Amino acid sequence: MIERLRILVIGSGGREHALARTLSHSPSVDIVHVCPGNGGTALSSSTSDDDSAVLNFDIPVDDFTSLVSHAKKHGINLVVPGPEAPLVAGICSYFQAVGIRCFGPSRAAARMEGSKAHAKEFMQRHGIPTASFRNLADYEEARRYLDGVGHQVVIKADGLAAGKGVMIPKSRDEAQKALKAIMLDRQFGTAGDEVVIEEFLEGEELSVLTFSDGYTIKSLPPAQDHKRIFDGDTGPNTGGMGCYAPTKVASMELMAEINRTILQPTIDCMRREGTPFVGLLFTGLMVTKSGPKVIEYNVRFGDPEIQTLLPLLSKDTDLARVMLACTEHWLDGVELKVEPKFSATVVASAEGYPGSYVKHRPMRFDPVPKDTYIFHAGTELDKNKKLVTVGGRVIAATATAASLEEAVAKAYRGIKTVHFEGMHYRTDIAHRALKATTTTTTANTKPTSPSSPAPPSSPGRPNENKNTPLTYASAGVSISSGNALIQRIKPLIASTSRPGSPHTTIGGFGGSFDLNSANLSLPPLAPTLIAAIDGVGTKLKIAFAMGKHDTVGIDLVAMNVNDLVVQGAEPVLFLDAFTTSKLDVEVAAEFVAGVARGCREAGCALVGGETAEMPGLLVGGEYDVIGAAVGVVDTRGWSASSPTPPPWSRATCSWRWPAAGATPTASAWCARSSRASGSPTSTRPPGIPAPASASACSRPRASTCAAC
């Protein structure tokens, strides 16, 4: 039997009205409580649908104790916090402590929005594309940094600032004034104790809202918000004056790239850091000439993005069940489908907004057109049960249609059914998309899953050629990056030349080694080839965390050649394979430099290698490596099971203990050899402790033959 849900939505904005309305229509929901709610959630007749299953309760969003008591008293079994402030303050833990599920991240995970500096450092650690930046907590240091910057910047207050803590100065003088306003004049209070100064990015903005259970992700269609108060994207920033979805700039290939390089790596890396993300991750992106980059993370539904997106959900998509699946970690078991339509939202604000604004203006409504929704934000019922304005962003109209042009036109017809003195709204919502379109764009006729590859004619991809050829680039593989890497590592390969392989090159299908010219000092016809193959295991995690990639290259060689040396073989050839989600030439070149150094120490030639990009198999800039080595040995009268080493090894090698310890194979051989000779057995020489620090753990294992 499907569990019946009694839901508590926390908040009082347009976002919460849209959530309450959609959840109240869920077949698995009995009732929706909203604390404190607004005029729209209090008065169902103010919308085009019957929201009688929605009830308001006057409890502030920051009174966690009273909210929990209310939930227990009324049998609430799923809580949906709307605003960012209670999430960043850790509201979910209060409900979870009394056994009530909460759709939202933990306090630790919510730092992705609560601290922009923290989020930028997270992206830097995990190779998630974002603008170059500096985090600065000292005003004088920040001022000096601005003086030395040679490009346009964006200045962001680190903490929560109601969506207004971002400054985009046009000149150096404006930048200094913005910095002073944030850090000295305390325009945003303690949110400005630290600032992020980052590179200004040019391109198209996207908002992607993604459900996550900590493992699986399912995204709603990409949307585009309009932050500035006036037409033409002018005037000060607001919480959002309008929105449309899906965006035309977000092709199927682009969304696949965003999922592969940004969204899934973000969720995976948060989980690996011990802060799994459960809830709704709202990622603000800029689509630049060099690809999509993260502007910011938010840990809640966007406003007005969610008012725009919820009307696109298919009739058989149960939002409450999607949220429940996130809290219980079975999101992969539910479907999130959207109708093949466009949606547009127009927000009306109060006189004076985003500055000091006028309140308590009476409101009047005309009948609302079909497929149009009125979502209340800054409204309430006065003592006479009449609607009045109380907020800066007062109300919004959302409409859906088969074309973006018609959706926008219907949204404007909807907002004109609302009347109050001093009402202001932009008249150019979706202007960039409409300006770029010369013909009417229509949507598909079949619901699609936004988290799965959409058909070529999906919304936002008009007149797409269905016979577009499949290429490496469309699969996320960069041939140009591969060629650039080859040029970088050619001299490294050449540096490993040795007798028998004097002309080590790159680019062929295999490497050769001439035993006759190898100067091996072995009897004629005696040499036997011995091969080994190995990786470096979880030590790669340390390389990722430290951003140091050469030592694992040395390690890879050592792991293989040590396996040869303990069998009495002289290493002569080495090959490696480097597999990554997306090729970073700098990282790959650093790794190969380590391999080349290891080969020089071991006296073997690096005769070949493979570099492969596997988008979707590996994430977040991570990679895996494998190596193979070939050696020669005079095996007359000796077998691999012999308790003593063969003549070449015993005559020429003296074992050297590396700082991080010998390989398991080397340790085993040493123990076996010591037993045979009567020498004491030791797996670690006295006085050499196990490594305890990350730097010690990253220290490369020595090639046993480096002391030969």
Automatic annotation (TrEMBL):
Record PANTHER family: TRIFUNCTIONAL PURINE BIOSYNTHETIC PROTEIN ADENOSINE-3, TRIFUNCTIONAL PURINE BIOSYNTHETIC PROTEIN ADENOSINE-3-RELATED
Protein name per its UniProtKB record: ATP-grasp domain-containing protein
Membership in a protein family: In the C-terminal section; belongs to the AIR synthase family. In the N-terminal section; belongs to the GARS family.
Biological processes per GO annotation: 'de novo' IMP biosynthetic process; adenine biosynthetic process
Keywords, sorted A to Z: ATP-binding, Ligase, Manganese, Metal-binding, Multifunctional enzyme, Nucleotide-binding, Purine biosynthesis
Organism: Endocarpon pusillum
Catalyses which reaction(s): 2-formamido-N(1)-(5-O-phospho-beta-D-ribosyl)acetamidine + ATP = 5-amino-1-(5-phospho-beta-D-ribosyl)imidazole + ADP + phosphate + H(+); 5-phospho-beta-D-ribosylamine + glycine + ATP = N(1)-(5-phospho-beta-D-ribosyl)glycinamide + ADP + phosphate + H(+)
Pro residues: compositionally biased ranges: 450-459
Protein role: Catalyzes the second and fifth step in the 'de novo' purine biosynthesis pathway; contains phosphoribosylamine--glycine ligase (GARS) and phosphoribosylformylglycinamidine cyclo-ligase (AIRS) activities.
